[in-house]
Design goal:
Structural class: alpha/beta
Number of helices: 32
Shape: elongated
Largest sheet: 5 strands, parallel
Distance between the termini: 35 Å
Number of strands: 16
């Protein structure tokens, strides 16, 4: 892919869509600076910004341009990061310098790639050109400076940057920001804003002057200047991100540019963005990229395998089904598709019936559903049996009290195996009628929908993780004599159980997550599963069974939505996300650019990078909305827990259970509150990420 063309198109798109600047903000700053003779500005992310979400993403862009030149510097993005860190450490250790030069960074890269000096020289040239090509001016700040100059203010620019003076002069002139009287760069003085020492030089050059500084960094541009009696203004409209979840892979570039332009276009005021807008915006970027790449991949599979009918499983695949229809894929692929109501309860209870009819006992998989996936910490026996549909009076007819004491006791997990034996030996007489009813109703619904057709090539689509529903459906078909296997297409499957089901369940393919990943990769996957499940929620509660309606059709029975809590929450959160995603798909379908990005740059690799960037290293807004997700903990969705509780660990035993649902999200929250956590405890939490890639481990220091 031609990323140079991508960047040029995105820049042209951004410049052509610049909105009117904020006159109120300009007036406000002019009033604030009235009694100051000098107004100072930070440069990057205040006066101008790169069209990359994070400054580090430039390295991912350089990697791609190198590849276009048939030069491969293995793992360049990460090594460019490491080279800068090494150069800074050497400069400080040998000379106590607070900054470095661009040349010093590349001296370290020559050492990292001793056999590829020509490629390193090319990378250096590409990086400098990338900085020039990606930079855009803040027109609001240009207007402000012109106003200030008319008020006879002296204008200075102060920046922590390793680029040489001549390069920065050229960069600023290129974007119309050669409006300064003096330019102070840390690379010239080897004194920096982040220490506050560069302000001594500024003040020494401007004796008897009063200075007002404007910048985006709360420490370097606000707090430290104040320690030198310089008044400040925190300008955070263009404040950049710093995250590394995607490992600076070249495939990150489309998402990076898309996210940056989205923020520049939508964050035109200093008012806090509402959560509903955050959900919609996340859908426009992440949601659109995910669905577009998955639909393209799925379309290829359907055509190759000559699938007659695709069933999109509820609830997770509802939004995928909508995207499939929006992009008119049935017509393109020559197939038919439908939305199929299914859930663990509505498929596993019929499977329990099949177990009993086939083997006269429940399988381990069915017992696992009835026990491990149903019991929650703190459950009493009475509550658990009620969840299974067994009345107290029936329990009293068994030997329960002799085996487990009181119905009101909290369930102890040491009784798991004894409970399974108890179910097999004494509870099946109460459960079998439930299982049989669910089976009969499911059979009628499945026949009605055509999923039991023995002749058609059938495929199912779901998010995945274990392929459980495909396996159960295959067993159901086999039980009634349908031997033809179905195919399953998923976002991802866990390597701990899915590979063993390939033979029995039928072919299963994944798009984003490989079921044969190494163990540490599946640990990473823990950060995606529950977020994706909730983002793919449907406009209905979970399916708990089927019934015949007044038109002699079988329809799903949903879990009761008390006081419309679920649907109200869905409308305000996940539907907003999905609306944003579908809007992006609609615009791409019409060959429009979406935040500067053409649909041709979207593929599985760019989608995976987007997922990693958000789920491994979320920004503040993402942490806020995604962390607030309440994930269902058991099969009937009756109990849920928040992905990131705004709580801090007090003892070591707190770490693992608090991290379980979203490890990187929880750790990101703890990092923000690091000063409130015992250092030894924080280190123990950080150690949980030792198997993660270098940049991610480093991110939590």
């Amino acid at each position: 892919m031609n990323y140079k063309k991508l960047l040029a198109e995105a820049k042209e798109f951004y410049i052509s869509s610049i909105r009117q600047f904020d006159e109120i903000c300009i007036d406000n700053i002019c009033n604030l600076t009235e009694n100051f003779s000098i107004v100072s500005f930070d440069i990057f992310d205040t006066l101008c910004t790169r069209l990359f979400e994070c400054p580090l993403d430039v390295f991912a862009y350089v990697t791609n341009i190198l590849e276009e030149h048939h030069q491969n510097l293995d793992n360049f993005g990460v090594n460019r990061f490491i080279a800068e860190e090494k150069a800074r450490n050497i400069a400080w250790q040998l000379e106590h310098r607070e900054d470095i030069t661009f040349d010093e960074i590349y001296e370290q890269l020559f050492l990292i790639y001793p056999d590829q000096p020509e490629a390193v020289i090319l990378a250096k040239e590409i990086e400098l050109n990338a900085e020039l090509d990606s930079i855009v001016a803040n027109n609001e700040q240009i207007q402000l400076i012109k106003r200030l100059k008319n008020l006879d203010k002296k204008i200075i620019f102060v920046s922590d940057i390793y680029f040489p003076f001549s390069f920065m002069e050229n960069l600023l002139e290129k974007i119309g920001l050669n409006l300064y009287d003096n330019l102070y760069l840390s690379s010239e003085f080897m004194k920096a804003k982040y220490t506050g020492n560069i302000w001594k030089i500024v003040l020494n050059d401007n004796p008897n002057e009063t200075i007002f500084h404007i910048g985006d960094n709360i420490n370097s541009d606000v707090l430290l200047p104040k320690m030198h009696n310089i008044e400040t203004y925190h300008y955070d409209k263009w404040m950049g991100e710093r995250r590394v979840g995607a490992g600076l892979a070249s495939s990150l570039v489309p998402f990076s540019i898309m996210s940056k332009i989205q923020r520049l276009q939508n964050n035109t005021s200093e008012n806090k963005v509402q959560n509903c807008e955050l959900w919609y915006g996340l859908g426009e970027s992440l949601g659109g990229i995910l669905l577009k790449s998955f639909i393209d991949w799925l379309s290829e599979q359907i055509i190759t395998e000559e699938i007659d009918h695709i069933y999109f499983f509820s609830r997770d695949a509802q939004i995928i089904f909508k995207a499939w229809n929006l992009l008119e894929q049935d017509q393109i692929c020559g197939t038919k598709s439908s939305y199929f109501y299914i859930a663990r309860n509505s498929i596993r209870y019929p499977s329990c019936h099949i177990d009993l009819k086939t083997h006269n006992k429940l399988s381990e998989a069915s017992l696992y559903l009835l026990v491990e996936e149903t019991i929650l910490p703190g459950d009493t026996w009475r509550l658990y049996f009620k969840r299974l549909g067994i009345k107290d009076e029936n329990i009293k007819k068994t030997s329960f009290s002799k085996k487990f004491n009181s119905l009101d006791d909290i369930i102890d997990y040491k009784y798991v195996n004894e409970l399974k034996d108890f179910i097999q030996q004494e509870l099946l007489c109460f459960l079998e009628p439930i299982f049989e009813t669910e089976y009969e109703n499911a059979l009628k619904y499945y026949e009605q929908e055509g999923i039991l057709d023995p002749k058609k090539n059938i495929a199912v689509v779901d998010l995945g993780w274990g392929g459980t529903n495909q396996l159960a459906l295959t067993e159901f078909r086999r039980f009634i004599g349908v031997k033809k296997k179905i195919r399953g297409y998923y976002y991802g499957l866990l390597n701990k159980n899915a590979p063993g089901r390939l033979y029995s369940a039928g072919p299963m393919k994944t798009s984003f997550f490989n079921m044969f990943w190494l163990p540490h990769d599946s640990t990473l996957m823990q950060n995606f599963m529950y977020i994706l499940e909730n983002l793919h929620s449907a406009n209905h509660e979970t399916t708990i069974g089927f019934k015949k309606n007044n038109f002699e059709k079988y329809e799903p029975v949903f879990r009761e939505d008390l006081d419309n809590q679920y649907i109200n929450h869905y409308e305000n959160t996940y539907k907003r996300f999905q609306d944003g995603a579908l809007n992006t798909l609609s615009r791409w379908k019409n060959n429009e650019l979406v935040y500067g990005i053409d649909k041709d740059y979207i593929n599985l690799h760019s989608a995976i990078s987007a997922l990693f960037q958000i789920c491994i290293s979320p920004n503040d807004n993402e942490l806020e909305i995604l962390g607030s997700i309440k994930h269902a903990l058991i099969f009937d969705h009756s109990v849920s827990a928040q992905l990131v509780k705004k709580e801090l660990p007090i003892k070591e035993e707190d770490i693992v259970p608090m991290m379980y649902l979203w490890p990187c999200g929880v750790m990101s929250f703890w990092k923000k509150n690091k000063n409130k956590i015992d250092p030894s405890l924080y280190k123990k939490a950080r150690d949980k990420f030792d198997t993660f890639p270098f940049l991610i481990k480093n991110y939590f220091y």
